[in-house]
Amino acid sequence: MTSASKNGRRSLVAVAGFSAAALAFAGCSAGQPADEASGSSITVGTTDKVTTLDPAGSYDNGSLAVQTQVFPYLLNTDYQSTDVVPDLAESAEFTSPTEYTVTLPEGLKWANGNDLTADDVKFSFDRQIAIADPNGASSLLYNLDSTEVVDDTTVVFHLKAENDQVFPLILTSFPGAIVDDEVFAADALTPDDEIVAANAFAGPYTITSYDFNTLISFKKNPEYKGLLAEAKTDTVNLKYYAESSNLKLDVQEGGIDVAYRSLSATDIDDLKGNDKVNVVEGPGGEIRYIVFNFDTQPYGAKTPEADPAKALAVRQAVADLIDRDELADQVYKGTYTPLYSYVPAGLAGAIEPLVEMYGDGSGAPDADKAAERLTAAGVTTPVELNLQYSNDHYGPSSADEYALIKDQLESTGLFTVNLQTTEWVQYSEDRTSDVYPAYQLGWFPDYSDADNYVTPFFLIENFLSNHYVNQEVNDLIIEQASTLDPAARTALIEEIQQKVAADLSTVPYLQGAQVAVTGTDVEGADQTLDASFKFRYAALSKG
Amino acid sequence: MRALLIIPTVFILVTLVFVLMRSTGDPITAKLGGQLPADQLAERIHAAGYDRPIIVQYLEYLGQIATGNFGTTLTDNRPVTEILVTYGAATLELAFYALIVAFVVGIPFGLIAAYFRDKGQDASLRVFAILCYATPVFFSGLLLKLVFSVWLGWLPVSGRASVGAQLQMELLPNKTGLYTIDAIMTGNPAVLGDVLAHAVLPAIALGLLTAGVFLRLVRTNVIGTLSTDYVDAARSRGVSEYRLVRKHAYRPALIPIITVIGLQIALLLGGAVLTETTFEWKGLGFMLSEYLQARDFVAVQGIVALLAVIVALTNFIVDIIAALIDPRVRY
Amino acid sequence: MSTDTVIQPPRRRLRDRLPVVHQLRQSVGLQRGMLVAGLVLTGLFVLVAIFAPLIAPFGFAQLRDLEGPFGSQQPPSADHLFGTTVGGYDVLSRVLWGAQTALYVIVIAVILSLFAGVLLGLVSGYFGGWLDRVLVVVCDAIYAFPSLLLAIVMAIVISGGQSNLWGGVFAAAISITVVFIPQYFRVIRAETVRIKAEAYVESAKVLGASNGRVMFRHVLRNATRTLPLIFTLNASEAILTLAGLGFLGFGIEPTAAAEWGYDLNKALSDVSSGIWWTALYPGLAIVLVVLGITLVGESLNDLADPRLRGRRRVAQASGTVAETSVVPGGTLTAGPGGLGGLEDGESFDEHGIGVRS
Amino acid sequence: MSTVVNIERLGVSFATDAGAVKAVDDVSLKVERGEVLAIVGESGSGKTVTAKTILGLLPETATTNGAVILSNKAGTSESDVISLSKKQLRAVRGTDVAMVFQEPSSALNPVYTVGWQIIEGLRAHTSISTKDARAKAIEILGRVGIPDPEHRVDHYPHQFSGGQKQRIVIAMALVLDPGLIVADEPTTALDVTVQAEILDLLRRCRDEFGMGIVLITHNMGVVADLADRVAVMYQGKVVEEADAKTLFASPKADYTKALLAAVPYVGTGTASAIERAAKRPADWLEQAPVVEASGLEIVYPGRFGKPGFQAVGGVDFVIRPGEVLGLVGESGSGKTTIGRAIAGLTKVTGGSLRVLGHEMNGVREREFRPLRSRIGFVFQDPASSFNPLLTIAECVAEPLVIHGRASNPAAARKRVDELLEAVQLPKAYGDRYPHELSGGQRQRASLARSLALEPELLIADEPTSALDVSVQARVLELFAELQREFGFASLFISHDLAVVDILADRIAVLYRGSLVEEGTGAEVLGAPKDPYTQRLLASLPVPDPVAQAERREELRRLREAV
């Protein structure tokens, strides 16, 4: 019999042996797995994903985060500032209502030694329009007619509409990246590996090793002559994560130096209490709001009991009842802050009309006021409201967020909310075909300016397609886009916000804060967390 | 011959997946649904041709496959063959380590359970097997991470290698994507140690799940063959009980066991989406769930076709091994 | 001359004929222990599922009560025995209501796959020929099919925008069903092929019975003797797949129904911040229920198979002598319920499904 | 001669689902060295349990008392098997006592070579080098008569015939040349011709190697052929023990007398066949035959290109109304295939087969169905010929319901009761389940079912071969009575000439798919012309040691002649 247990023991020994060997290796590896590259090195972790390096083929933040570090932009905003100033360019201004002239300094070089001239600029914009990739951002160049090269260092952009104040901002964002015409293809997307191999970079950093959506290694670019100060760290490694809890554990255990973008509220709340890491916050560009479909919402235009006044009263009652503080604290634990206007705090022209107009006047909910409004308009309560949200596109906490909103509306007895959710792709198709009377939506800015928070939403033909028609607001928006004088433009933007707040096409309620978690020995994160919403590695330093 | 079934199996699967994918939206809406107004979205969808009737798109896709062009993925613009190789390598490595654990734990303990039938050891091993099988892998993975990396700090939390190790492996000209082999090629033992350390927890989590299945399988089948006449005959000739289990009952019991083990291997090679997500092990399983959500038709079809080939090939190999074990099939 | 004395066998009491009770009295020693443990756990699960509305202190989507909101991630306390989740729900209520959802999914998934799988297996096994080969190829193909894709498709097609309880339950159930049908198909087909060669089926054919009559009156009832075992194994896989779908974000929407996999997914980030109770209890619930059901399934499998069944060691040379041995065919082989069992039937093999690993 | 094994007051009982059952009660037996003790009895008599106790091979659920004193090979020491520890028991098995099993095909491990399995026995007891072990294996294979042992030692079990497999099982028992061999129904699974060879081999073991043999069997012919002394067991007790000759000549216990009377003695049946022939009406020969086969061929299709297997190659025979044709042949002779072809269960591929005036070659089920009510079929295995989930009444009522003679089983119950009475089964059995009946009772019910529609033709495929001798005798009597009463024509298929002789008017002998001999019982058994028939007849053992000894000589002469 003993031989039987011997066999049993032999297999137990085998299992123990396997794990012991692994542990032994782990022991010696937990130290320095590899000799450190010369000079300082920082590792950043994120859960974003890159679509492609080629600026003509991407329109998402994951790709922009990498492109900002390695490609030159004609114009840019400095740390902690919102005004657009030349970056690669020497000067840039309207030389005529429809001509925007940009001059480049002499002798600019790509990291691979090729000359960086006006030809590169024209090439970059022409290919954006020529390729018009389904995932690309070519639609932002709606106002660009043609690009003309005057000489090696001067480029003139011929625009369709006059005095377009938005165009300079677009040059700082997605389609504004300048690429090397000797490496990139003119009429097709260039694969990432070719770009890295050709070292076609001219930003603060270049890419030395590229493992798609797993690990990217950046090296300081000595040729960089842009707006930002010289990069403080030689090597920056960017590590990609699938699960936010793994990102949190790595930054907490010191496996990585910086964690930026999409840690869950619980993670951040826990890390705030942990003295091994610093939690750094900055103004966020992301906003969350509820959209009302004017046709199908309660008392909507296309419903049997259509009545604009009652419909407005319903929207106003909802605006009265939403408790933004409770949402921000209980669900998002401070990673989102209450938002009382259409333009997020931190941008020029942002005011807070909803504070005085709805709720108790100081931002808190007011059940009685809502009840008054509804009875005044003759609305029988409780109002039946179908509210739709997406459970996967806007992060994991949407479900808890909307369960709380449903609770807030229903606890006053004024509403019975029928909460629904659908998988994202179907959600996007249904919302534009009038399936949902009221639904959740979010917004990531294309460029950090108030225009990007009104133009897409409140023109007659708009992104929401929720049948909100206000000619006056429509004209104001078009006017502000071409108003040269900043003060006059700001006044226009404030007026637009007042008017839409009265109509309540959407009810904004949360603004996302930018959060970065860094080791205690890392500085510069607070400097780059600004209204530009670009996390620039050049500002980071360690030790 | 089951080998010939590879073609119809793959064909059925790809068609099924093709129709289902096309009927649930398109990649453009998935990526830019929250950014572009409806008309621009419709314009781009029309330009990309996703609004054409499914039959037309299907015939076009078959044309591409026929010419060996598996196409490039729609959401990250990479050739399908490349993603199959890079993520397939990760899944292969995870499956390899998991199978080591599964074989080392599953088979011997199955034999012991069969030997000590209906005694204490048998009952405890059977409950252990059911627990391995019953615990969701992301739950057990989580507990393993908490105990071994967060509290004890012996092992890394997740991922396939630490940043430093990965960088060294990136420099290799002939990088295979199998980190263990790459680590050996770098010649730096610390890198190999790092890669192995990263593999321990996922291997145990996934390995135990499969070990639970192997253990119950071996136990039932060996007990089955233990009560056959030829084992009784051997017993009547004085062969020891232990040798009866290990030799006389084990080999004939292997025939039914091999077929199920083959299937388990195929499923492991198909990628374990839950384990891969829990441990940051970007393999076929994880990427399939990502591409599915992004409605990347081309990528999903490529992965499913590969899965089908893997399952069919494994069945084929299992037939050969069964023939090796069972002389009746061979002659 | 050993004449055939007329012996009146005891009419089998009804109590004996109930499937599980009969096995329970038959089992012995450790197998009885496992069967009892399994039955206790499964019984508990079913009871909790049925009486969830009464037992659970709060509704599954209740965020506040008279004294105000529960607050998120509160540790276990007097009024919240299992604490509260990140969304502010009461964990204990979610676990109890979750049992109800799990039971719905099991019942629907198994019923949908049971009929289709058994019928296909019966017809394919009985008639054989090209129909049989085609169905076998399709079944093998299904193994490689990502049931995750089906979960997404079903989540959209069925709920069609609504995410109520039934939409979610059916979506999960159907995506599990597709993988279960081949399992039922394979086992019933093997049983049909085996039974088709039995003498009583051939005698029915000789008598001129129609194919339909032979299939349903003779073959089907005998082929479905192994179903309780498959039913239990599929029930446990249904729960594990539901948890898998929940983990990947395709579970049922929290305000529509409580679902363990979904809660577990939400609780992952909690655990790494030291909040253990939100993950521990749903996880434990899944493990205990699957353990219970599988124990019952495994014990049923052992008891149905005489080779695996242990018997009470008889007291020293006791027992009535010759009376029963007159029945030729000997005392060793016969026993109530006939020889039956799985001796030669295909031993039920295990296949994991994609979403479970 | 010293005693090899001495069983004193042995008692064995088992735990079954229906409580404790005593299989062996107070049995005492002795076997001398070089002597064959046959233990004979019907199933359930406890003979196999007694044998297994000698090797301690009883399952855990068994408890034993009394003593089994086994002396070792050299006769130097003795040990009581029952009280041995597992380790000591192992040492005894193979060296002092070895066992030969009934089913040769399942007693050999399919996945190991025969050589390896023999060496296993050696390695379990002696530390012998593989080279010597292999040589010993080859030598022992040669001794048991396996041709070309050097190569065959590396072959696998499925590459041997039934007879050869049994020789290998015996070789495995002999390899350590034990003092005692326990042979449990060694020849039951074999064909008659092969059985004779195996009995010769066992005789050599006794004579050349001086071993004691305990022979377990229910076949009195085998006992007469090989046994020195006989012990008859019934319901767990030894009712009589005596040397072979006196037991057969003058049995004392009633049970033994009844057993010997029930054993069919080949040749005794021809008288009744002649008397039946006499009563035939004059124009009987001209009546249209019920079944007429001319050049009948049946080929089973091979799979994926493997050639088909020809089961029946060109057979001609005729069955006239009311006549019983006995179809005799060994396994693989095609007899069952012909039976199934007549019943429409197997496709006819060549020649012609007319059943009740209907051509079966290219038959379509729809046309043939109405004819089915005029054909009855009785299957071989009583255990599986009834649907376990239906009661006997429902099964017997099946033909009546199918052919519309009754709307449902309940309506047919009156007719069913009559049928049960006809086959001497009490009406009350109708409410029982098949597993609650004995083998014999089930076979009677099967007869009742086949006669429900008063068929003109009844096909019986080895109806009694799975039954005990005494039960078989009564079922055959019943069959004859029913045949006289209903007057159906019948094809009686069997491998046992003695059984066929009792019932058949004419006998047809099949060998590998072709008809080698046909004629009345007297012609075929009295003066067989074909050599195969002669060998078949000669190798069939008769329950009379004296007569059996002469027949053995005659068989040896035949073997030299061929």
UniProtKB/TrEMBL annotation, chain A:
Q: Name one GO cellular component term.
A: cell envelope
For this protein, the record's InterPro entries field holds: Peptide/Ni-bd, SBP_5, SBP_5_dom, TAT_signal
Q: Which residues constitute the signal peptide according to the record?
A: 1-26
Q: Does the keyword Signal apply?
A: yes
Entry keyword set: Signal, Transport
The protein's location, in the record's own words, is: Cell envelope
Which GO terms fall under biological process for this protein?
A: peptide transport
* Any one GO molecular-function label of the UniProt entry: peptide transmembrane transporter activity
**Domain Solute-binding protein family intervals:** 84-458
Pfam families (alphabetical): SBP_bac_5
Q: Which family does it belong to?
A: Belongs to the bacterial solute-binding protein 5 family.
Q: What is this protein called?
A: Peptide ABC transporter substrate-binding protein
Automatic annotation (TrEMBL), chain C:
Q: What membrane topology does the UniProt entry give?
A: Multi-pass membrane protein
- Sorted alphabetically, which InterPro entries does this protein's record hold? BP-dependent_transpt_permease (IPR050366), MetI-like (IPR000515), MetI-like_sf (IPR035906), OppC_N (IPR025966)
Q: Where is the ABC transmembrane type-1 domain?
A: 99-297
Instruction: Cite the PROSITE patterns for this sequence.
Output: ABC_TM1
**UniProt GO BP:** transmembrane transport
Q: Supply one GO CC term from the record.
A: plasma membrane
Q: What is its main location?
A: membrane
Region annotation (Disordered) maps to: 336-357
Q: Does the keyword Transmembrane helix apply?
A: yes
Pfam families registered for this protein in UniProt: BPD_transp_1 (PF00528), OppC_N (PF12911)
Keywords from the named record: Cell membrane, Membrane, Transmembrane, Transmembrane helix, Transport
For bias type Basic and acidic residues, the affected ranges are 348-357
Q: Does the keyword Oxidoreductase apply?
A: no
| Residue spans crossing the bilayer | 34-56, 102-127, 134-159, 165-185, 227-252, 275-297
Localization terms from the record: Cell membrane
Supply the PANTHER family for this chain: D,D-DIPEPTIDE TRANSPORT SYSTEM PERMEASE PROTEIN DDPC-RELATED, OLIGOPEPTIDE TRANSPORT SYSTEM PERMEASE PROTEIN APPC
| Family stated for the protein in its record | Belongs to the binding-protein-dependent transport system permease family.
What is this protein's name? Answer: ABC transporter permease
From TrEMBL, chain D:
Which of UniProt's keywords are assigned here?
A: ATP-binding, Cell membrane, Membrane, Nucleotide-binding, Transport
Subcellular location per UniProt equals: Cell membrane
List the GO terms this entry assigns under cellular component, sorted alphabetically: plasma membrane
Recorded hits in Pfam families, A to Z, give: ABC_tran, oligo_HPY
One GO process term, biological-process aspect: peptide transport
Q: How does it sit in the membrane?
A: Peripheral membrane protein
What PROSITE patterns does this protein's entry cite? ABC_TRANSPORTER_1, ABC_TRANSPORTER_2
**Start and end residues of each ABC transporter domain:** 7-260, 291-537
Keyword DNA repair attached: no
InterPro entries per the UniProt record, alphabetical: AAA+_ATPase, ABC_Ni/Peptide_Import, ABC_transporter-like_ATP-bd, ABC_transporter-like_CS, Oligopep_ABC_C, P-loop_NTPase
Chief place where the protein resides: membrane
Does the keyword section mention Nuclease? no
UniProt xrefs under Gene3D superfamilies: P-loop containing nucleotide triphosphate hydrolases (3.40.50.300)
Gene Ontology molecular function terms on file = ATP binding; ATP hydrolysis activity
User: So what family is this one in?
Assistant: Belongs to the ABC transporter superfamily.
Name of this protein: ABC transporter ATP-binding protein
